[in-house]
Specification:
The structure holds two protein chains of two kinds.
Chain A: E1 2-5, E2 14-17, E3 20-30, E4 38-45, E5 51-57, E6 61-64, E7 68-78, E8 81-86, E9 92-96, H1 97-100, E10 112-118, E11 121-126, E12 131-137, E13 151-156, E14 161-165, E15 173-177, E16 182-186
Antiparallel strand pairs in A: 1-6, 2-3, 2-6, 3-4, 4-5, 7-8, 7-10, 8-9, 10-11, 12-13, 12-15, 13-14, 15-16
Chain B: H1 3-9, H2 14-33, E1 37-38, E2 44-45, E3 58-62, E4 68-73, H3 78-87, E5 92-99, E6 112-121, H4 125-146, E7 157-160, E8 163-166, E9 172-175, H5 176-184, H6 188-191, H7 194-203, H8 214-226, E10 236-242, E11 258-266, E12 269-276, H9 281-297, H10 307-316, E13 320-326, H11 327-334, H12 348-352
The chains are: A mainly beta, B alpha+beta.
Chain lengths: 187, 355
């Protein structure tokens, strides 16, 4: 463990909070009227998956947890968990749906991901900024539908629906921001 | 994606951005009808008011011979408006840009923002409470009348993030002490004593470090345990703030531990900060001087305070009260947006690529 201050806080970082490991899922600065700056975080407990809000004093210290990353292949969903396999040792591990959040919509079997390990347990993924997925269902753009701004929805290979420009066709590979689910570009 | 590109692809979003012009138009009509003067205050200034909690934008003004003078971007129109009050303008207001450095990475702040301030002569903070109640209903009514499909909705009701809010006055009035008791189970008279505050906060599990101040503990408890409860379904006026906060507010005569100050909240969102104005120039000067010391201690940009403002107070500021309202948050509320940036055509985060 190493001691850090709120200045080093980042989304996706793991810290100890109330004696339990937590993932920072969101952070915002707040300045109350006539007050100093504070850091408002959303913290997800690695044990319970429960999310709580906590506001730190700006500059307050916390313990960052040592997290290792291992490259693993996603295999399949099993119950509420998602099974990954180490590409070298063939060791398998399961990550819970709560720790993956909306990213479950973009998980593609056989693709490799950076799995986050804490004390020998898989606790999450280092989410990529962009995922590339193939469009499996797309309709022609609706004619005369100018109000909605020349977009339509398509289905990609993982089953997620994405809002895209009209020129996207079935079979195209598109880049998606997994954090927002927004279409970024055509491959 | 930059906002202009998003708007080009999603023209249905224009309506959300057009709420801003309606809010500002309604503000002008509201005060115009009451014969307030709207004035322009400078954005480029020589002496900011000393407020240690704010970080300032510093720049340089050159004369024709390139002789440099330090210049700053205004953090609020308060001081120029008060000088005009001294000069005898009467009731007045400004809707203007203000700048506060370091206010990035937040859904509720933008380093450049729009602020509304109005001042009423002969008024105290209770009169401004009524102004706020009337102004919010007025803006809401104006938006509904001018937005197709909303004409038939109730003028005092709005929907924010799926919750119905009734803006009709009188709003709930809650003292800071009552809020601490109700939501944080803290006896505020005890909390006002610094040593007690530390032990109360420590028992609650907050981290106390050598440099932790009373103000930090106060705000940390407020932000963690109280703020989100305020203004649910109906606006809340939170009043009687501890006197140590607010460099330009008048203290209560009956209890100088508190300032005649209030803030109002809707759905956990702070929208405005009001106080009865401090008219005593000696006290103002000594507060500015202690704020400057604090600015130095914090290692922030150092500047001299506005001595012309002290001169103005010497000449006599009429008894008055005023308020600052974050127009961007107001727009966010009426536009039912989650972030102030979602109501700005050119938010700073897009221009500077900072988160």
């Amino acid at each position: 463990m190493s001691t850090i201050t709120t200045a080093q806080f980042k989304k996706g970082m793991f810290i100890e909070f109330k004696d339990e490991p937590h993932l920072i899922t969101d952070m915002q600065f707040v300045n109350p009227g006539k007050g100093s700056a504070f850091v408002r975080t959303k913290l997800k407990s690695l044990k319970s998956g429960k999310v709580q809000e906590f506001t730190f004093k700006s500059g307050e210290s916390a313990e960052e947890l040592p997290i290792e990353t291992r490259e693993m292949q996603y295999l399949y969903k099993e119950g509420e968990g998602y099974v990954f396999m180490d590409n070298f040792s063939f060791e398998q591990c399961t990550i819970s749906a709560t720790m993956l959040g909306d990213f479950i919509n973009y998980l593609k079997p056989n693709d490799s991901y950076q799995v986050l390990m804490f004390e020998e347990n898989a606790v999450g993924l280092r989410f990529p900024k962009k995922v590339w997925l193939k469009v499996t269902e797309a309709t022609e753009g609706a004619k005369g539908n100018t109000v909605s701004g020349a977009t339509k929805t398509v289905v990609v290979e993982t089953g997620a629906t994405i809002t895209v420009p009209l020129f996207i066709k079935e079979g195209d590979t598109i880049g998606i921001d997994p954090e927002t689910g927004a279409y970024l570009e055509r491959g | 994606m930059n906002t202009w590109k998003t708007l080009k692809a999603h023209p249905e979003l224009w309506e959300r951005y057009f709420i801003r012009e309606k809010v500002i138009a309604a503000i002008r009509i509201f005060f115009g009808q009451q014969k307030f003067h709207e004035v322009e205050t400078p954005l480029l200034i020589a002496h900011p008011p000393a407020e240690s909690y704010l970080d300032i934008f510093e720049t340089t003004l050159f004369d024709r011979n390139r002789n440099p003078t330090k210049a700053y971007l205004s953090t609020s129109p308060e001081v120029p408006l008060k000088k005009l009050m001294v000069a005898g303008i009467g009731n007045c207001f400004a809707v203007t840009k203000s700048f506060r450095n370091m206010e990035t990475q937040s859904n509720l702040h933008n380093p450049e923002f729009t602020i509304l301030e109005w001042y009423r002569v002969g008024a105290d903070y209770r009169d401004i409470m009524s102004d706020c109640e009337e102004l919010l209903v007025f803006i809401n009514t104006y938006i509904k009348r001018t937005t197709p499909g909303m004409e038939t909705q109730r003028p005092e009701e709005l929907s924010y993030q799926g919750t119905r809010v009734n803006l009709a006055g009188p709003w709930e009035r809650l003292t800071v002490a009552d809020a601490f008791l109700r939501w944080a189970h803290v006896d505020f008279a005890e909390f006002l004593l610094e040593d007690h505050a530390k032990s109360i906060a420590q028992k609650k599990g907050y981290v106390i470090e050598a440099e932790t101040t009373w103000e930090e503990l106060y705000n940390q408890i407020f932000l963690n345990e109280i703020e989100s409860h305020l203004g649910r379904g109906k606006p809340t006026i939170l009043y009687e703030f501890p006197g140590v906060m607010g460099a330009l507010a008048r203290k209560k005569k009956s209890d100088p531990r508190f300032a005649e100050r209030f803030e109002f909240y809707i759905e956990g969102l702070e929208l405005g900060d009001c106080y009865s104005e401090l008219t005593d120039w000696k006290e103002q000067q000594s507060r500015f001087e202690s704020e400057l010391k604090e600015i130095k201690r914090l290692g922030k940009t150092i500047y001299d305070y506005d001595h012309d403002f002290i001169d103005a107070l010497k000449a006599g500021l009429p008894d008055s009260s005023g308020i600052a309202i974050g127009v961007d948050r107001l727009v966010m509320l009426f536009a039912d947006a989650k972030r102030v940036q979602d109501t700005m055509l050119f938010p700073s985060e897009e221009l500077f690529h900072v988160p």
